[in-house]
Design brief:
This protein is of the alpha+beta class. It contains 5 helices and 8 strands.
């Protein structure tokens, strides 16, 4: 195990930071998940220590990196997913330049599942293609997204603020599942509750 966050993980975290800051009166608390194999090293006493180190790395990245400022939730399929992190408010037709894709950590390998409230990396139909986009599962999608095309990597879950995710899930969309009114990720900052 490692607490180093790769570039693709950093991109996903930037998106989450903007979600947290897009609504001033709501807090979304994300719970990180660690490897499903027990860890004990000179650096990490157990999986809890590793999880804490990873969470700290993630929070620092979210605060430091402004990639997700003014990005959109561009895909909303009610009862399925709310997806964001790829398009800017200023250019809704071109994907933002992203970092190199991550290596897929599929649910079968991690034990983490695409259930209601979980957060996962979005990707194309090609394995190892996730870059900056992420999605919130707004339904229990484990029977589909854990296995389709190799699965989709879950990296956390909503602990507080699911009402915000549900509100986004209920917005009006066009025929391509784009919200008819922009749902924007504004910015990220660290609060005392973290």
């Amino acid at each position: 195990g490692s607490d180093v966050v790769n570039p693709q993980g950093k991109e996903a975290l930037k998106t989450l930071a903007k979600v947290l800051n897009s609504t001033q009166d709501v807090t979304v608390l994300i719970e990180g998940h660690t490897d499903n194999v027990p860890i004990k090293t000179n650096v990490f006493k157990d999986n809890w220590d590793l999880s804490t180190a990873r969470a700290t790395s993630i929070v620092r990245i979210l605060i430091k990196d402004g990639f997700y400022s003014s990005t959109l939730f561009h895909r909303v399929v009610n009862g399925f997913v709310v997806q964001g992190g790829g398009y800017s408010v200023n250019d809704q037709t071109t994907l933002k330049p992203a970092r190199d894709p991550i290596i897929l950590e599929a649910p079968a390998a991690t034990g983490l599942s695409n259930t209601l409230g979980s957060i996962a990396m979005a990707r194309t139909s090609t394995l190892n293609s996730a870059t900056s986009e992420f999605y919130f599962n707004t339904g229990d999608n484990n029977t589909r997204l854990d296995t389709d095309s190799g699965g989709y990597a879950v990296f956390g879950s909503v602990i507080k603020g699911m009402d915000v995710v549900k509100a986004i899930d209920a917005v009006a969309v066009d025929s391509k599942s784009w919200p008819t009114s922009a749902v924007t990720i504004l910015s990220a900052s660290q609060t005392s509750s973290l």
